[in-house]
Design goal:
This protein is mostly helical and 292 residues long. It is built from seven helices and no strands. It has a domain at 7-158: Helix Hairpins, CATH 1.10.287.
Length: 292
């Protein structure tokens, strides 16, 4: 029994909490107002029914009163004609009608009192319903304003469910943006260092092959340098023959300089390109003042 009571209590507590969460005071107030209107309608219908019964009794009373008056006239006429027996019969019927009339009068008074009572109750209930309606609208307006103010405050403070979702979405977007920026920066650094050159070309970078390529390039440079040195050495005798002719030309030029003016040193010899014979080189152009 103790376990069942605890289960029942827990169930009631959970149900009460769920109902309290689902309940809207505005809907409850509207429902209560609707019930009061239904009760007021029933009271008014009761007043109308009592008034209808009272009116029916009143019509019956009028009919009995007219019948009693008619019987009295008949009794008076019968006595005038000397018919006492007819007058007695008419008066007996009048007495019966009068008894019924008295009963209807009592019933009429009761219905009239009940009608007045229900009318007063209907008026009081109408006043309460009107007051409840005013109070209901005031409470609903206050509740709506408080609810709106609460939502605004929650939005400003950022603790509402909608603003919390928006904040989480913004945080996720910022995290993804920072991650993409970091990834882009890392790729830029790897590309600048050359670590991704082979990866971009579709092959893996081989450090040994790279060092062998550098050594091969250095050997090619040394081989080319030796070849140029050999060509320069082979072209040296031709340069010596050309030098003898140059000495005679220099003597002639020096004599010309003695006659014309101060001595001017000959132009420097141009470097001979490697691999080209001296005879194929163009003759040096005369300096300014040498031909004058």
């Amino acid at each position: 029994m103790g376990v069942m009571k605890r289960v029942s209590l827990v169930f009631k507590a959970k149900a009460n909490k769920a109902l309290d969460k689902m309940e809207d005071p505005r809907e409850t107030l509207d429902y209560s107002y609707q019930r009061q209107l239904e009760l007021l309608t029933k009271v008014r219908r009761g007043v109308a029914d009592v008034a209808t019964s009272r009116k029916r009794v009143e019509l019956q009373m009028n009919q009995l009163q007219q019948q009693a008056n008619k019987l009295e006239d008949q009794a008076r006429k019968a006595l005038g004609m000397g018919r006492e027996d007819l007058a007695r019969a008419a008066l007996e019927r009048k007495a019966s009608a009068q008894g019924q009339l008295n009963d209807l009068q009592v019933q009429y008074a009761q219905l009239q009192a009940e009608e007045e009572k229900l009318t007063v109750a209907s008026q009081r209930l109408q006043s309460k319903v009107d007051a409840f309606r005013t109070r209901k609208e005031t409470i609903k307006a206050t509740y709506t304003a408080a609810e709106a103010q609460t939502r605004i405050n929650e939005a400003f403070s950022g603790i509402s469910e909608e603003m919390g979702d928006v904040g989480m979405a913004i945080q996720r977007a910022e995290d993804k943006t920072a991650q993409m920026q970091a990834r882009a920066g890392a790729i830029d650094e790897l590309m600048a260092s050359g670590a991704l050159d082979d990866a971009v070309g579709g092959s893996r970078r081989d450090d040994i092959q790279s060092e062998l390529d550098m050594m091969s390039a250095s050997s090619d440079v040394e081989r080319e340098l030796s070849r140029l040195k050999g060509e320069i050495t082979a072209s040296a005798p031709k340069q010596l023959e050309g030098g003898a002719n140059g000495n005679s030309q220099a003597t002639t030029q020096s004599q010309a300089q003695d006659q014309s003016g101060p001595y001017a040193p000959p132009p420097p010899a141009q470097a001979q390109p490697a691999g080209i014979p001296v005879s194929d080189l163009p003759a040096a152009e005369p300096q300014d003042g040498e031909g004058s």
